[in-house]
Amino acid sequence: MVGGLVLLVIGGEGLVRGALRLSERLGLSRSLIGIVVIGFGTSMPELVVSIEAAMDGLAGIAVGNVVGSNIANILLVLGLAGLVRPQVVCERVLYRDGLFLMVITAGMAALLLLADTIGRIASGTMLAVFGAFLVYSYRIDEQLQPPEDADAKPTSRPRRPILIPILMAVAGVIGLAWGAQLFVGSAAAIATTWGVSTTVIGLSIVAVGTSLPELVASLVAARKGETELAVGNIIGSNLFNLLLILGAGAMVSPLSLAALNVTFDVWAMLIATVLLLIGLATGLKVDRREAGIFVALYIAYGAHLAMA
């Protein structure tokens, strides 16, 4: 499990760095990088873990990974980043991306609480919404880009060959795939040996482990004062988790929800998302006091898992 986790973190870091350099080389804006590129890059561990779990018939890990990761992203990752530096955003991030995340989270919570199975029709719908989100984000980004950016692009492009970031991204994907295979297999073995359900393993060890790329990226962004990148990373990552990762996992193999006991955790994910929007709505930032509350709530959530 430790070896798989190391590969996940290194692979995620390589993919994020490669994607960042590739995006800068192609002239994409910072807001699009934060929500789409960084959000997707740091969600790659969750993607490969959930697909691997779905192929192995471990619906508890596939679903628990997404739900637990979204809770960890908001309460733990953004909380720790907010303790480093208050997380300030613009109104566009709150009212466009934040509200979209709230709608998607509420819809997916209803699906997880009321449905018995996430089948291929539901997964196809999720993937379609995900594709629409990507197109929408790109078009809005183009419309909001300042006119002077066009003049700045030629001078801001790195002189390094574009092949370098592509190779970094490919190496990152390979590391993620290998790490996910080790990590999921170890998690299932631990669940069997210790008598712990795969759902609890997915909600705790797997969720936190695959959230480490988000944590590293957000802490680095916070330390550099790039708080909009950090918040965009969390919003984008949670959207990718709910739409792409659950959708892709269910497309590979329908996920049975009947035997999963995730009611408390789904409500925790929904409440965490509401708290995120409330925090951002108060002065367009998550200050250190609110960040401390987030971390304290995650510690309480972890204690609940330990007693489950």
What does this structure look like?
Helix content is about 85%, strand content about 5%. It is mainly α. It has one domain (about 1-145, about 160-305): NCX, central ion-binding region (A middle domain of Talin 1, Up-down Bundle), CATH 1.20.1420.30. The strands form 2 sheets. Strands 1-4 form a two-stranded antiparallel sheet. The chain has a two-stranded antiparallel ribbon with strand order 2-3. Helix 2 (about 30-55) packs parallel to helix 10 (about 225-250), helix 3 (about 60-85) runs antiparallel to helix 12 and helix 4 packs antiparallel against helix 11.
Instruction: Characterize the largest beta sheet: strand count, sense, and whether it forms a barrel.
Output: 2 strands, antiparallel
Q: How would you describe the shape?
A: globular
The CATH C-level name is Mainly Alpha
Calculate Rg over CA atoms: 18 Å
Percent range of helical residues = over 70%
What is the CATH architecture annotation?
A: Up-down Bundle
The neighbouring-strand order within the major sheet is: 1-4
Q: How do the SSEs run, as a string of H and E? A: HHHEHEHHHHHHEHEH
Q: Strand-residue fraction? A: under 5%
| Helical segment count | 12
The name of the CATH superfamily reads: NCX, central ion-binding region
Q: Can you tell me the number of structural domains?
A: 1
What class would the helix/strand composition place it in?
Answer: mainly alpha
Low-confidence stretches: 148-158
What distance separates the N and C termini?
Answer: 22 Å
Mean pLDDT: 81
Per DSSP E runs of 2 or more residues, the count of β-strands stands at 4
The CATH topology is A middle domain of Talin 1
